[in-house]
Design goal:
Structural class: alpha+beta
Number of strands: 27
Helix content: 25-40%
Distance between the termini: 24 Å
Strand order of the largest sheet: 5-8-11-6-7
Length: 419
Amino acid sequence: MIYSPNNVKIPADWSITRADAILNHINNPIRSQSLKDGIFFHYSIPAIQDTGDGKIEDGIDIDSDKLLLEGGEILISKLNPEKGCVIIAESHEIPTICSTELVPLRVKSASSVNSKYVFYVYSSNSTRDLLASRSESATRSHKRVNPSEIAKLKFPLPPLNTQNQIANYLDRETSHIDALIQAKENLLTMLTEKRQALITNAVTCGLDPNVPLKPSGVDWLGNIPEHWEVERTRWLFKERNERSETGEEEMLTVSHITGVTSRSEKDVNMFEAESNEGYKICFPGDLVINTLWAWMGAMGISPLHGIVSPAYHVYIPLSRIEPAYIDTIVRLPIFASEVTRYSKGVWSSRLRLYPEGLYEVYLPVPPLEEQRQIVDHIKVELNKINKFQSAAEQSITLLKERRSALITAAVTGQIEIPV
């Protein structure tokens, strides 16, 4: 018998079944108003994607309707099905609920169907691809598949004994792969911490471990080399407020992850003005700060000539400052925390950093040549770290591909399962 999504031949003692023949679609809605006085174990798509589980939440913090669960349901996301967000709900001492973006299915008879096998079917590449092909765009960044497509999916079903063997085998093998992935992710975390420590130490203490130190008088800096100066940014930068007459210059954007880059390089979906006339001009070497997101670290030295939103602020580093040295400082989380102290706004997520706030911040100022040496040192060391990061990321990608391929092969009968 041929299983059409993969166009593969399944074993002779297997059958092709439709999900609703062996699974019940559970639909027990509960209004958000009914949740306000309770504590719940909540399966949401963000929580599942971030932690592989749900989490305990106070009902007062839940502002949308949910589905009530008993435990044992297979939860399949109808949102962006190609991501394969699937989990088996556990039973808890407190009420268990899930997002209405999840489709709960429960086996009709445990004597003929293994829930874990079904979980792996819905986690397989073949199912992801099939459901993704039947999904429709909900927004620019989200696709949604009709729950009926999930509940009526056709897939291979072996005898119960074989289902049990496949589920146990995949439990063992995926656990082993997951442990390898976790080890690589731990390495990436360690490398990220090493990166931050390298930069922070270099721009606040210099490169000579034996140099005499002195108190900087600034909390976030601590002790600095004795021959360095500490200056307020007021004396190190001059605001640039030049405006584009045509709006035809390259549009730039600023983020806490990539610093200043061309908007054309980013996959961004945002409002675009009919004309960019009057946008602020920046030149290579200018410091550009996203006023609204400075508290997150959205700032950096521009490598490009272009224009930025009038809501941004652009600053010219004066002659005592090497732009590349400043770029390493302003991209540090500790610096973002410092400028947040001088930002204005009622809500922490709506703080704005204006020039008068930036000018209150102090910076370490080594001699200009030492600034350049620090930048060169950081580049060399970061190149080493980047190589390790790239290798770890590639390894994670390959392990995830191996995991997905193994699941797909097992639930379509393409590999022999050790007994």
